[in-house]
Design a protein that fits this description.
about 0% helix; mainly beta; four-stranded antiparallel beta sheet
Length: about 100
């Protein structure tokens, strides 16, 4: 599920944030980088929650500022018995430096 995109004109790179679609029921955030022909340059696991963590992510977004990529997203936990969301959302921002 692609949720955010930003373009770095200086490098000619697209930055795309998305939720992975794992065989398990909980999601993680990823950051993919593409060139102007949409060839994959990198694919970064922003989060790596395991099944037993009962944590999931949502609504990732991306912005570029001062040679950094900022990925914001929310996290929440799940009830291990019912797998219902606990509605304990927290916002997180991860930062990555853009290098040439």
């Amino acid at each position: 599920w692609s949720m955010g995109i930003a373009y770095n004109e200086e490098q000619g790179h697209f930055y795309v944030t998305y939720l992975d679609d794992p065989p398990r029921s909980l999601t993680n955030v990823r950051l993919a980088i593409f060139d102007t022909d949409w060839n994959s340059i990198a694919n970064i696991a922003v989060t790596q929650y395991a099944d037993h963590s009962f944590s999931q992510t949502g609504r990732p977004w991306v912005i570029l500022h001062n040679h950094h990529v900022y990925v914001s997203f929310d996290t929440s936990t799940m009830n291990p018995k019912t797998m219902e969301e606990n509605k304990d959302w927290e916002c997180t921002v991860s930062s990555y430096e853009i290098t040439n």
